[in-house]
Design a protein that fits this description.
The chain is mostly beta strands. It has one domain: Superoxide dismutase, copper/zinc binding domain (Immunoglobulin-like), CATH 2.60.40.200. Helices cover 0% and strands 56% of the residues. The chain contains no helices and 8 strands. The protein has an 8-stranded antiparallel barrel. Strand 2 and strand 3 form a beta hairpin. The radius of gyration is 13 Å and the shape is globular. The termini are close together. The mean pLDDT is 96. InterPro entries: SOD-like_Cu/Zn_dom_sf (IPR036423). GO terms for molecular function: metal ion binding. Belongs to the Cu-Zn superoxide dismutase family.
Length: 117
């Protein structure tokens, strides 16, 4: 389990207050599940998420695209992504959630929450 801390600006240019947890669980069948749980997202919103190489202060390239984080009416967001354990990089990797979802015509925007696994 790793803490996710506010990072960057929200889509409306206010400083991010989004924070939460990411939990990576490995199973004996060669699968892993990465669960993201965050608070303070805009209500009823969706956000792209991924694993990136590097650290929050030095983000590298995207290593693995994760499932979108969906926020409820209170701004509590959740995501659960199942993937083969072999797809998870062995080097330092960071969980990142973005201002918008991949389906947004404006693009995903900047990072709003970050945590190093």
């Amino acid at each position: 389990m790793v803490g996710l801390r506010p990072f960057g600006l929200l889509a409306d240019n206010r400083p991010s207050t989004v924070a939460g947890l990411a939990t990576l669980t490995h199973y004996s069948n060669g699968q892993s599940v990465l669960e993201i749980s965050v608070a303070n997202l805009p209500p009823e919103s969706s956000h792209a998420a991924n694993l990136r190489l590097g650290t929050c202060s030095n983000l590298g390239p995207i290593a693995v695209a994760l499932g979108s984080v969906f926020a409820d009416a209170r701004g509590a967001g959740k995501s659960s992504t199942r993937l083969p354990t072999t797809q998870i990089p062995t080097e330092r990797v960071t969980v990142v959630v973005y201002q918008r979802d991949v389906t947004d015509p404006k693009g995903v925007g900047g990072a709003i929450v970050c945590g190093e696994l």
